[in-house]
Design brief:
The complex is a heterotrimer of chains A (117), B (137) and C (777).
Chain A lengths: L1 H19 L4 H22 L25 H32 L14
Chain B lengths: L3 H24 L7 H19 L1 H8 L3 H21 L9 E4 L2 E4 H27 L5
Helix pairs in contact in B: 1-2, 2-3, 2-5, 3-5, 4-5
Chain C lengths: L1 H25 L3 H5 L1 H16 L6 E8 L5 E6 L1 H24 L6 H20 L3 H19 L6 H32 L4 H6 L10 H15 L8 H4 L5 H9 L3 H15 L3 H22 L5 H22 L2 H32 L10 H4 L1 H15 L5 H15 L4 H27 L19 H19 L5 H12 L15 H18 L1 H16 L3 H23 L4 H23 L14 H19 L3 H21 L3 H22 L11 H25 L9 H12 L4 H9 L1 H23 L2 H7 L1
Antiparallel strand pairs in C: 1-2
């Protein structure tokens, strides 16, 4: 299963990089989304997917063992990453809108000069 | 073209979503849930409401400028950092008291801060976008 | 009293910063009134001068600084008193003097601002007890002097001179910083008082050579030693009061001061002696030599300063009791006569409109007071009695004759340089002061009586002090013994006298004066010879070489920056990806080991694989789709697919968050994208194929990384700790949530701050419109 997910991640990265290298700024943003999802998956996979129990401590127990459940640490990391991804996505979208409104183009090659017309 | 049934359902749904979010928030320490999730759920409720009624109605509904909500969320979280300092412990140390058998502590306060901030952030973002890009008609 | 002195130094800084406010209030009296503070400081220092017992230093803690161990603390001992009195005394005179000299200049506020800050920086440098504080003040003098030298910033020459001075002294400043850090690391303290008290000497340390080299570059740049001497003549583009101050008591003398300060810690080694004597000797000689060929009075003075600095460096390098004493006295002598001469040059310039010695003449008759002050200073410069300069020169000869192994080298060099000093003094005296028949007296703009009285105070006071100290040198005994104690780290009794008896040294003096007179008589052939040599050296003209070096460097940097910073987003990314690819693939192949272990991996679940296949197809669809909306929807499919994957593997919280976040992003995305144009094929087929290859390579690399990562276990995972403590100490059964709000709450705090910033960013981007505002104006 790890092999399958690893290949899936590789595919996501390939698509993401290809999108990043497009000249259209919309595709660039899609690329950022894809890559951030792929990165979350890497973190998730690094905790190991051999155990699929939920990471809670049972009602009677006082402590849990990692033997039976998914590693909680990567989950905590990803959880914040997702929400931050949401904030960043909104920011990029606003930036893109502003950029298009100001320059009237969505071609990144036209952005190569910092001076405003 | 107004769709009365949709509007009714959506207004009702907003309360359901926010209520569910609060439920998840307070339960989050022991069961699935927590500040981030609850915040996103509540914000999704507002987003749905905004799509149907327009962003002005959302702002009317919450009465406060979402930026202030965001700021107060951050302040609440900071408070959770400061309370242990006043008790002479390192910042963000969990301080717990027990009230009628339920454990209450600064981590819970922190979680509430996160919740408030996430709601404020998403509401602020989408109301701004809807307003500036004229999605309100 | 010590505290008062330090407070006054602070007051000078404050006053400098307040100049923009004060000047409109004080109008034309600014210079004269502000001069009161340095004079007050001078008074306080004079009091200390007479009361400070031998072999003591007073340390003043200010209680503020960067860190507890690195506070600004000040030390008052003989050495800092001598320098501090010169800086404050001459500083006060220069301020009063500029009150008249600068009366018609624009930008006087700026002038006083930087001049006073410069004075404060120099005082701070002199009194600093902490090496780091010393470095900061050292840099401050470089920066403020940059503005002072470039005061006429609308002219090309002063600008270049200022830049040159800044670049060269900043080079030295950097070296000093490194040296100070190294000294601090080796000795374990940055405080001079501790260094002295512990008797630390770095001579035996393995890094001594490096530290010494750095210090040497620092002082050679600051004190205009060969081959860095060329910035000093350029610096005379500054207004004359600045030149007077830079040359006499500050800036270039900072290097001398530093050498004396560090002498107990680093001095006396072979490297120290060799380097300083050699450089000092060369500088002394070429400074005096080049001064003979100059026509501009200020340029002549600038070259004699170089010579004098060389003399001091050489004396310090010799590191005998006699030589250090001579160096200290010579610093005072030089400050007094050079300050006076520059001020005289400024007055003459103002009153005749020229500084060319071939055109000036007969000033003794028309401007007697100025001339007498100038002549007294010239006497001091040529080392004739009864001035303090005579004592200084006698001590220098004495030190050189006594120098054990090297007297055969230093004595002739010193005598030669002094001969030329005598000759140039007589030349200046003869050309500009003496009324002559075959050279018409130059007309004056004003009669001397009409000149504002205080204009003349500066040079006259300096000349009289030089004369007075020459008559009664005993006043300096005490303070010199104190200074000597901290320079030589041994108690020395100093007895100065004008008359030393008839001895070898006096003979040398007489010989020097005689030879100087002969050079003066032969001035025409000598002048020609020097002219030829100057012409010859002009092809190695250092200032120009230096400017070329700088401009070539800028060109080089500009060209190459444009190549790297081309502004095309794609190529930045391609560069980045290729570099990462090469490095990581190399590392992966280098690491070796197994890639995949079928027995260890979890069983393949067909329903998960199905979800993954659907997601993969959605992504591919998004990549090649021409429609915005369908691309966004397929993005959503990917997001939900990943959420389902989280769900299957037990991360419930993640799944919920991912579902909702993905939904919200999609809604916002649709809202924004509606206003943007549809996709268009912008790239050529060729570049698309290239990009696809890069993308596939990166994807393959990531797959390899993910597979490999499972077999690398650097540390015991911390998760077990979380699992055990979550309920017992965090009072929560949802471990993920406890990690977020308790164990790693600081991270979360940072993250929600980022979220708030993102929302603020969205708000400002959408609402704020700078272009519109500009056009409205």
């Amino acid at each position: 299963m790890e092999l399958v997910i690893a290949i899936f991640i590789g595919l996501l990265y390939a698509s993401g990089v290809y999108l990043l290298l497009r000249r259209s700024i919309v595709k660039l943003i899609l690329g950022v989304f894809v890559i951030s999802n792929a990165t979350n998956l890497i973190i998730f996979l690094s905790g190991g997917i051999t155990r699929s129990g939920v990471s809670f401590i049972g009602d009677e127990a006082e402590k849990a063992s990692l033997e039976t459940m998914t590693d909680p640490l990567p989950q905590a990391l990803i959880l914040t990453a997702i929400v931050i991804g949401l904030g960043i996505a909104a920011y990029i979208l606003a930036l893109k809108y502003k950029y298009f409104e100001t320059t009237g183009t969505h071609d990144l090659d036209q952005l190569s000069k910092t001076d405003q017309k | 073209m107004r769709n009365i049934v949709l509007e009714r359902i959506v207004s009702l749904f907003l309360y359901v979503m926010v209520g569910f979010a609060l439920f998840l928030l307070f339960r989050g320490h022991n069961r699935p849930g927590g500040g981030f999730i609850a915040g996103i759920i509540a914000a999704a409720g507002f987003l749905l409401y905004g799509i149907v009624f327009g962003s002005e109605k959302v702002l009317e509904k919450i009465r406060v400028n979402p930026r202030y909500i965001m700021g107060s969320g951050l302040l609440i979280a900071l408070l959770a950092a400061l309370i242990p300092m006043m008790l002479g412990k390192p910042p963000l140390t969990g301080v717990w008291t027990s009230l009628a058998g339920i454990a209450l502590g600064t981590p819970l306060l922190f979680d509430i801060g996160v919740f408030v901030l996430v709601v404020g952030m998403i509401v602020s973002i989408f109301t701004n976008i809807m307003d500036v890009l004229k999605w309100n008609s | 009293m010590e505290q008062l002195a330090i407070v006054l130094i602070g007051l000078i800084f404050l006053m400098g910063l307040m100049v923009p406010v004060l000047r409109p209030l004080l109008k034309n009296y600014t210079g004269r009134i502000l001069a009161l503070v340095p004079f007050a400081l001078f008074g306080a220092l004079t009091f200390l001068f007479f009361t400070l017992p031998d072999e003591t230093a007073r340390i003043v803690e200010t209680g503020f600084g960067f860190l507890p161990e690195m506070q600004f603390s000040f030390r008052i001992d003989g050495l800092s008193l001598i320098f501090g009195m010169m800086v404050s005394g001459i500083g006060g005179l220069v301020l009063g003097y500029s009150s008249f000299y600068m009366a018609k200049y624009a930008g006087r506020t700026k002038f006083y601002f930087f001049l006073i800050l410069f004075m404060g920086a120099m005082l701070g440098l002199v009194f600093a007890d902490n090496l780091l504080a010393l470095f900061i003040f050292w840099e401050l003098t470089s920066i403020t002097s940059f503005f002072l030298i470039g005061f006429d910033h609308d002219k090309d020459k002063p600008r270049q001179a200022a830049l040159q001075a800044l670049l060269i002294t900043a080079l030295g400043g950097l070296c000093l910083l490194f040296a100070v850090i190294m000294v601090g690391n080796i000795a374990g303290t940055f405080r001079l008082s501790e260094l002295y008290a512990q008797g630390i000497h770095l001579g035996a340390h393995s890094h001594y050579q490096t530290v010494f080299l750095l210090i040497f570059v620092a002082i050679a740049t600051k004190s205009a030693q060969f081959p860095f001497h060329f910035w000093l003549p350029g610096a005379m583009n500054a207004p004359t009061p600045i030149s007077a101050y830079l040359h006499s008591a500050t800036m270039v003398n900072a290097g001398i001061f530093l050498l004396l300060r560090l002498n107990p810690v680093m001095g006396g080694t072979i490297a120290w002696k060799g380097a300083l004597i050699l450089t000092g000797g060369i500088t002394m000689f070429i400074g005096a030599f080049f001064s003979l060929g100059q026509k501009d009075l200020k340029r002549i003075l600038a070259f004699t300063t170089i010579s004098a600095l060389g003399t001091m460096v050489m004396l310090i390098g010799m590191n005998t009791t006699a030589s250090i004493k001579a160096a200290l006295i010579f610093f005072i002598v030089h400050g007094l006569y050079k300050g006076g001469l520059f001020m005289v040059a400024g007055i003459i310039d103002k009153n005749t409109g020229t500084r060319d010695i071939t055109r000036l003449s007969g000033l003794l008759k028309s401007m007697p007071v100025t001339s007498i002050a100038g002549i007294l200073a010239l006497l001091s410069m040529s080392g004739l009695p009864p001035m303090l300069g005579f004592i200084g020169k006698e001590l220098i000869y004495d030190a050189k004759v006594q120098m054990p192994e090297l007297s055969w080298l230093v004595v002739p060099l010193g005598v030669a340089a002094n001969m030329m000093m005598v000759a140039i003094s007589i030349l200046v005296f003869y050309e500009i002061f003496i009324p002559r028949k075959n050279k018409p007296a130059i007309p004056l703009f004003h009669k001397e009586k009409e000149l504002p009285g205080n204009f003349l105070v500066g040079p006259v006071v300096l000349a009289l002090v030089g004369l007075g100290l020459g008559m009664v040198p005993g006043w300096l005994n005490n303070i010199l013994s104190n200074a000597m104690f901290y320079v030589q780290s041994q108690a020395v009794d100093v007895h100065l006298a004008l008359w030393h008896g008839f001895n070898q040294v006096l003979l040398l003096s007489i010989f020097t004066v005689a030879m100087g007179t002969i050079i003066f008589i032969l001035r025409r052939p000598v002048g020609k010879l020097v002219g030829i040599i100057i012409l010859w050296t002009d092809q190695y003209h250092l200032p120009e070489k230096f400017n070329n070096l700088i401009s070539n460097y800028l060109n080089f940097a500009g060209k190459h920056t444009n190549r790297i910073q081309h502004g095309y987003h794609r190529y930045y990314l391609i560069t980045f990806f290729m570099a990462t690819l090469l490095l990581i693939v190399y590392q992966l192949l280098d690491a070796g080991g197994e890639w995949f272990h079928p027995a260890e991996s979890s069983p393949v679940r067909m329903h998960v694989v199905l979800v993954l296949i659907i997601s993969a197809m959605a992504v591919l669809f998004a990549v090649f789709s021409k429609s915005r909306l369908s691309a966004i929807v397929s993005m959503g499919v990917l997001g939900y697919g990943v959420a389902v994957l989280y769900m299957f593997y037990g991360a419930v919280d993640l799944a919920i968050t991912q579902f909702l976040a993905e939904t919200i992003i999609m809604v916002i995305f649709v809202m924004v994208i509606f206003y943007l144009p549809d996709f268009a094929v912008l790239s050529s087929k060729k570049s698309r194929i290239r990009d696809a290859i890069i993308a596939l390579a990166v994807g393959a690399m990531m797959t390899m990384v993910v597979l490999k990562a499972r077999f690398i276990n650097m540390e015991e995972p911390i998760s077990q700790f979380f699992a055990e403590k979550s309920f017992l100490e965090g009072h929560g059964r949802n471990i993920v949530n406890v990690i977020l709000v308790d164990f790693r709450a600081l991270d979360t705090l940072g993250e929600i701050t980022v979220l708030a910033l993102a929302a603020a960013g969205v708000f400002t981007l959408l609402r704020f419109n700078p272009i519109k505002k500009k056009s409205e104006k």
